[in-house]
Design brief:
This protein has helices at residues 2-19, 25-44, 57-77, 85-104. With 112 residues, it is an all-alpha fold. The protein has one domain (2-104). It is elongated. 29% of the residues are buried.
C-alpha cells in the first residue's frame, strides 16, 4: 500500500506546478525533480508493487525520511517561500504527509 501511495504522490508532485499554478520557477523545477525522484524510488523498491525491485526496503525507508525533509525545507532553501505561498503550502503539506506515511507504515521482512 505504501508504494502505491508513493506512485500517486509522485505523479501529483510532478503535475503540481501545473495543477496549482506555481509562480516561482524554482518551485516548478524542484517539484518536478522531487516527483521524479519519488517515482524512481517507488519503481526501484524491492516490494510487491516495485517494478525493478533492486532497492532494499531498509534503504527505501531512509530515503523516505530524506525526501520528507527535502520537501519541507525546499521552499526556504530554494527561496520561493515568500514569493509563492501556494507552492510553499503544497511542499509543506506533502512533506508532512510523506513523513507521516513513512512513520505509519508497518514494514515487514519479506519471506522467500
Amino acid at each position: 500500500m505504501h508504494v502505491l501511495i508513493e506512485y500517486g504522490v509522485a505523479v501529483l508532485t510532478i503535475m503540481s506546478p501545473f495543477l496549482f499554478s506555481f509562480d516561482a520557477t524554482a518551485a516548478k523545477l524542484v517539484a518536478v525533480l522531487i516527483g521524479a525522484g519519488i517515482l524512481v524510488l517507488a519503481v526501484l523498491t524491492d516490494a510487491p508493487t516495485g517494478i525493478a525491485r533492486s532497492l532494499p526496503v531498509a534503504s527505501h525507508v531512509v530515503l523516505d525520511y530524506v525526501i520528507s525533509l527535502l520537501l519541507i525545507v525546499a521552499p526556504f532553501v530554494f527561496g520561493f517561500s515568500d514569493d509563492d505561498t501556494g507552492a510553499t503550502a503544497y511542499f509543506l503539506v506533502i512533506g508532512i504527509g510523506y513523513v507521516l506515511l513513512a512513520v505509519l507504515t508497518r514494514y515487514r521482512p519479506q519471506t522467500a
